[in-house]
Design a protein that fits this description.
The protein has about 130 residues and is an all-alpha fold. The protein is built from 5 helices and no strands. It starts with a helix and ends with a helix.
C-alpha cells in the first residue's frame, strides 16, 4: 500500500539500509558472544532479535525489486528480463542454501562480514 506513496526506489534503498545496519549489529553481537564462549544470554537474544529485524528491511526490498527491474527494461525485453531476474534469484538461493552453512561452519561469525560487505556494495550501487 505504500509503494505508490514512497516509490519503489525509496523502498529498495530503505530495505537495503535496514538490512545492512541490522547485519552489522548481528555480526558484532555474534563476535562478542563467541569471545565470551556463548555464555552471554543477552547477546544471544540480541542475535535472535536481529534475525527477525532483518525481515523489516528484507520485505520492502523483496516486494519492490521484481516490478522495478521489469519496468526499467524495454517493453520487448520484459519477459527476458524477468527470466534473468528469476534465474539470478534461484542461483542466489542455491548459493545460500549450500554454501552459507559450510562457510559459517568453517569461519563462524566472520562470514557475516562478507555478507555485510555485499550489502554495503548493494547500498552503494542502489543509490
Amino acid at each position: 500500500m505504500v509503494i505508490n506513496r514512497i516509490g519503489r526506489r525509496g523502498l529498495i534503498t530503505f530495505g537495503m539500509t535496514v538490512m545492512l545496519l541490522v547485519f552489522i549489529i548481528w555480526t558484532i553481537c555474534s563476535a562478542f558472544n563467541e569471545q565470551r564462549n556463548f555464555t552471554d544470554h543477552p547477546l544471544a537474544l540480541a542475535v535472535v532479535s536481529m534475525i527477525f529485524l532483518f525481515q523489516v528491511g528484507y520485505q520492502p526490498f523483496a516486494i519492490t525489486t521484481m516490478p522495478y527491474v521489469v519496468e526499467c527494461s524495454l517493453f520487448s525485453l520484459r519477459s527476458k528480463t524477468a527470466m534473468i531476474f528469476q534465474f539470478c534469484g534461484y542461483t542466489a538461493s542455491f548459493f545460500t542454501g549450500y554454501v552459507n552453512p559450510v562457510a559459517t561452519g568453517s569461519i563462524g561469525w566472520r562470514y557475516y562480514i562478507v555478507a555485510s560487505v555485499v550489502l554495503a556494495l548493494e547500498c552503494a550501487f542502489a543509490r
